[in-house]
Predict the structure.
Amino acid sequence: MVGLGMGMRPPNYWKTLDVVNTGSTSLEVTVHYGDDNNGHEIITVTETLAPGQELTYPEESYDEGGWESVATVHDFSVSCLPGGRHPHTFSVHPAHGIERIHGVSLTCQADTVTVEM
């Protein structure tokens, strides 16, 4: 018999992230996927979002030689442009199961980033 026993919990992670820049300043958003365990490297994807722009950071994976494992979203950081001297990093805290996070609203004012989920 195969299944989740009493002591086993289902997976709990973010696999994609949908963001929108709701402010009037461009933002640089960097998403870090995966971890460096088991010989994996962190996958880093950086994009610039213009005011009003929406973007989906797609699912990433690791080639395991015949199969693929999910590279989960570890964290994301946001910098106000121009300059971006002080990136703000946000850790990921998944609530239930495998998630695609929709509608993350990002705004920058006076080099301070606001995130609403």
